[in-house]
Amino acid sequence: MPELPEVETTRRGIAPHLQGRRIARVIVRQPRLRWPVPRNINSETAGATVQAVQRRGKYLLLTLDGGTLILHLGMSGSLQVLAADTPAGKHDHLDIVLSDGRCLRLHDPRRFGAVLWTRQDPQQHKLLAQLGPEPLSAAFDAACLYASTRKRHCDIKSLIMNSQIVVGVGNIYACEALFLAGIRPSLRASRLSAARSARLVDAIKDVLRKAIAAGGTTLRDFTDSDGRPGYFKQQLQVYGREGQPCVNCGHPVKRQVSGGRSTFYCAHCQR
Q1: Which residue segment(s) compose the domain that 52 sits in?
Q2: Which of 154-169 are b and which e, b meaning 16 or more Cβ less than 10 Å from the residue's Cβ?
Q3: Catalytic one among 11, 58, 102, 196?
Q4: What span, in angstroms and rounded, lies between the C-alpha atoms of 88 and 91?
Q5: Does the global pTM surpass 0.70?
Q6: N- or C-end of the chain: fewer Cβ atoms within 10 A?
Q7: Contact present, 130 and 164 (Cβ < 8 Å)
Q8: Taking residues 121-127, what's their average pLDDT?
Q9: Whole-angstrom distance, CA of residue 236 vs CA of residue 222
C-alpha cells in the first residue's frame, strides 16, 4: 500500500502540472472503486480550475473553484500526468482531463482507491474529520504522543499506526521508526516514558522525511507521478530483513505476524 511518503511524493510530482490548470472533463471508465465514483463528478468539476493540491494523511485533496476532489490510492493505486490521448490500459480507471491536453490518470489494479467529491470543507468529510495530527507538523510532538499513551493497553506499534493518534505512519515506517528509537514494537503503550516518547517522535519524523526525500518506498507496484520508483527501500534497516544481521549489533532481525501484518525488529537493540 502506498504510505504517506509515497503519497507526498505523488503530491509534489503532480502539483506543478495541475495547479492553475482548468479541468476540461473527467472520464470514468470504472466507477466501482472502494466507494462508487460520484455520478455527477464530470458535471461538478468540468470548467473548474485547480487551485491547490494538498495532502491530509494518505488522502490527496485537489481544491477546485467550487469544491474538493478527494483521492486515495488504496492498496495498489498510482497517479501519472500523461498526454490525454495516451491509450488507457486495463486498470486505468479514471482520467482528469486538463484543458492543456494532458490528464491525471488513476491506475489501480486492485480497485481499493477512491475518487470522491465534496462542496463542503474537506476537513469535515467523514473520512478526514477524525484524523489525528500530521506526523511532520508541530502539533505532533512528544507531549502529544505521551498523552495519547496514557491508560492505553495496546502495543506501541499499533498505537502509532492508529490514524486517530497520528496520521500516515504505516507498517513499514512504524517498524523503521521503532528500530531507530530502540523501542520494542510489542511494548505496552502505557509503559512508554516521556523521554522515550520524545525519542519516538523524533524517529518517526526522521524516517518519514528521509523516505519522502528518497521518493517513497517501492515494495510492489508503486510508481511516482513520473513513472519512476522510489528508492527508500534501499535504506530500510529492519523491514523485510528477517534473519539478516542487524545493522547495529549483528543479531538476526526477527519477524512477528499480528493482525495480518509483519513486524520486523531487533530483540537485542529494541527494548
Answers
A1: 4-124
A2: ebbbbbbbbeebbbbb
A3: 58
A4: 8
A5: yes
A6: C
A7: yes
A8: 96
A9: 16
Percentage of the chain modeled with pLDDT above 70: 93
Q: What is the DSSP letter of 74?
A: T
Regarding whether 103 and 166 lie in a shared domain, the answer is no
**3 is known as an active-site residue:** yes
pLDDT tens figures, 13-50: 999 999 999 999 999 999 999 999 999 999 999 999 99
Residue 271 lies in a domain: no
d(CA 50, CA 39): 20
Q: Which of 110, 205, 255, 261 does the annotation list as catalytic? A: 261
Active site residue 90: no
**218-223 contact pairs (CB < 8 A, 24+):** 219/172, 220/76, 221/76, 221/78, 221/109, 222/2, 222/6, 222/78, 223/78, 223/80
Does the structure show a pLDDT above 50 at 221?
A: no
- Is residue 2 part of the annotated active site? The answer reads yes
Inter-residue contact 59 to 3 (CB < 8 Å): no
CA distances (Å), origin 98, targets 29, 39, 101, 209: 17, 19, 6, 31
